[in-house]
Design a protein that fits this description.
The protein is mainly α and 206 residues long. Helix content is 53%, strand content 12%. The chain is built from 7 helices and 6 strands, in the order E-E-E-H-H-H-H-H-E-H-E-H-E. Strands 1-2-3 form a 3-stranded antiparallel beta sheet, with no helix packed on it. It has a 3-stranded antiparallel beta sheet with strand order 5-4-6. A hairpin with a 5-residue loop joins strand 2 (17-22) and strand 3. Helix 4 (108-126) packs antiparallel against helix 5 (133-152). The longest helix has 32 residues, at 36-67. The protein is elongated and about 90 Å long. 21% of the residues are buried.
């Protein structure tokens, strides 16, 4: 029918009711009563597929932003031959490889950034108020890489810049030896009230 009627009406040819609808992709169509169940099923499947594609694209973009634009494609080609790998798996594979490269180059600043990003991603994935042990471990590795960066510049002492929660504020300390913190780091706090502990090390100068 052209134009498509704005509301239900009788078909001018067969005199049966026709119903205008908008598909999930934005296209206007005209249906008979019998077509409605199939139409609703198509709409539902289209939305699910589109949501999955958006999630896939978001993970690939996140990977490219983190480890370089050429990495996601090569990893997808490498892992794609093996069943069961998702765009999320590609992200973690790329992040882990980037961390190993940073370690080999002793690029502690990049290693810290990578671990921080990985920790925050794991925290967002968990959908929990409290950080999991995996999140805390990644956040801890980010802090340790930062301490190694400070040590490489000849620094020996750090302060802790606490985040806003009461628990972390009580744990704020100054003049901590970097060598001691490398063995027994004081942050992040597992019981941070904000969930994602934002406490950080800052250089302390004599």
């Amino acid at each position: 029918m052209d134009p498509i009627p704005p509301r239900r009406r009788l078909c001018p040819v067969c005199r049966q009711p026709v119903i205008p609808r908008t598909r999930a992709d934005g296209v206007r169509v005209v249906l008979c009563e019998a077509d409605l169940p199939a139409f609703e099923d198509w709409n539902r499947r289209w939305k699910v597929a589109t949501r999955a594609q958006r999630d896939h694209d978001a993970w690939m973009e996140k990977t490219a932003r983190m480890v370089g634009a050429d990495v996601p494609g090569s990893l997808r080609a490498e892992l794609g031959a093996q069943l069961g790998y998702s765009a999320q798996d590609i992200y973690w594979a790329g992040a882990n490889r980037a961390v190993l490269q940073a370690f080999k180059a002793s690029d502690w600043q990049r290693a810290s950034m990578l671990f921080y990003e990985m920790g925050f991603t794991a925290y967002e994935e968990s959908r929990e108020d409290q950080a999991s042990e995996r999140v805390l471990e990644l956040r801890r590795e980010a802090n340790l890489a930062k301490l190694r960066e400070y040590a490489a510049y000849g620094l020996e002492w750090v302060d802790i810049l606490a985040c806003g929660c009461r628990t972390c504020s009580r744990g704020a300390t100054t003049r901590l030896a970097i060598n001691d913190q490398l063995w027994e780091p004081s942050i992040p706090h597992a019981d941070c009230a904000e969930g994602w502990c934002r406490c950080d090390y800052t250089p302390a100068f004599a």
